[in-house]
Amino acid sequence: MTSVQLNAARVKELVAKFIEIGTAQYRAVYVIDNSSYNRLYKAMEHVRAELKAMPGDQRRALLPLLSHPNVQVRLKAAHSVLALYPDQARKTLEDIRDSGIVPQNGEAASAIRRLEEGVYIPK
Q: 3-class DSSP state for residue 3?
């Protein structure tokens, strides 16, 4: 395998891991399992950092997740690609905010407000 093929395979693996973590976060939120959620948050941060560090900032591979059926996966994908695709990510945050799905709609509303105030600057 070439290094390009290895990178592509790793990106695919990381995207699958991101979905798995987001889905587990969704479950942890609804059973109020904060310790699991915190562990999953750190795992997702690790996946996001690894994608960002790859050549060409491979967080872009998360863009299709903006339409994932799981609201938590969509929310975390929107946060992850906000610096790269601000219009699409913000639209997803707005859709989640307007969905009425608690608690994700609150996090989305807060992110939008912080963006507008200039205190949330995506990296």
A: helix
**Domain span holding position 82:** 3-117
pLDDT tens track for 43-77: 999 999 999 999 999 999 999 999 999 999 999 99
Rounded to an integer, what distance in angstroms lies between the CA atom of residue 50 and that of residue 7? 11
Q: Is position 123 within any domain? A: no
Report pLDDT digits (tens) over 1-40.
Answer: 677 787 999 999 999 999 999 999 999 999 999 999 999 9
Helix (H) or strand (E) holding 72: helix 71-81
pTM for this entry: 0.95
Do the domain assignments include residue 86?
A: yes
Gap between the Cα atoms of 53 and 16, Å rounded: 17
Provide the domain count of the chain.
1
The verdict on residue 122 lying in a domain is: no
